[in-house]
Input
Amino acid sequence: MAYNKCICQKCSSNYATVAKTDEDIKDEPCPKCGEKQLKITGPMSMTEMSGLFSGGG
Output
């Protein structure tokens, strides 16, 4: 599964998404501020993806 990076244009928080286009996430609220201003900024690199699933703790 491919992930893209997206950013909230209101609060500048970054997230991972499986959405492929800005149209796909236009109605999704930001988990932090609740505004529907998410914008895809590009695909996630392998390093970023491994950070998502590394567990940590």
Residues 46-52 form the longest helix (7 residues). The chain has a mean pLDDT of 90. The helical segments are 46-52.
